[in-house]
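Form 7-S
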Amino acid sequence: MKRAWVWGSFAAAVMLASATVPAAPPDATAERMRSLRERMALEDIAAGGVTDPRVLESMRTTPRHEFVPPPQRHLAYVDMALPIGEKQTISGPFVVAYMTERLEPRPTDRVLEIGTGSGYQAAVLSPLVKTVYSIEINKPLGEKAARILARLGYKNVITKIGDGFQGWPEHAPFDKIIVTCSPEEIPQPLVEQLAEGGRMVIPVGERYDQMLVLLTKRDGEMVRESLVPSLFVPMTGAAEEARVVQPDGTRPAIGNGGFEDLLPGAEVPMSWYYGRQMELVEAPDAPEGARFLRLENAEKGRPAQLFQGFAVDGRAIGRLAVSLEVRGESLREGSSPEELPALGVQFFDERRTRSSRALLPMGKGTFPWRHLQGTLTVPVWAREAIVLVGMLGGTGRLEADDVRIEGIAR
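Output:
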């Protein structure tokens, strides 16, 4: 039922997907993981805007590598989602930290988690609250997570196999509820099981057009606050059966390619997710509309990017025609020639166990606004994709506008 399907660093996926790590003695491995975890907490989570000291401490001490399959453990402390089997992923660390902070966990809280997944989110919550009740609809995944949590000593995490749409009424009411999969509408049983004054963080919406929202129950009514656009896997079970709008992979497209539509009251572009080192600039020389995207990075390898998901059916679509307007200032490669600004598309099969990527490089150096276009091949097995506009670890300033994607029939 889980997982935030987000890539906290597409650049890391490009650079590290095939990396290998030599075997090391247990003590050395533990120290290396601790060092990587500290760096993740400082450079990805704190630098990304999470400030709650208790949340940061939990992120520094929770061993994410224990919840990641062995082939992926060399990427455990890179800010990206990783496959965990059963068509699911473990959420990126920043997303976990951000949702945890917005939940405002307290030591006396009883928390309901919908979507145990790998068990990592429950482990992060464990030292912050009294009890975590976690539900997973996928039996093999839920049983595996329960074994890992027990082995690592998380005694205040209680798990069960079931449909999270129904909540866990026998343990209700809950002080906090966190949902890590996306229904089209907020499940009424979860509303009923949230205590007065309680908080719920949940992604809601269509398959590729979701909003992470915070709900607070006041005088029996749910007060809703939109946080950020998001991209999570769908809530399965009863929630998916009731879904009205289904994605059409035969008509791939993205929204808000000109970055004109903003989240009300915030400088956050609608339809785009998880921006890093980015800002929206209003200027009369914007190629399309009134504003454009600016990405700026001074440290090689650090993420500076923006994402959006969309459906694409490789049986019907053979290529994607992509285009955008770009401008560069002092663009230089990162730690390798491949670390340069690009528009990238990562393709996934229907089980999210197979993926490939295609890139449209944007160039280096300094150059004025110019039109960039190309075609990217779609694998026949592809069913969904994530588009990235990013620095890919390069340095300098990149500006982009009027991003377009159109499917070309196979």
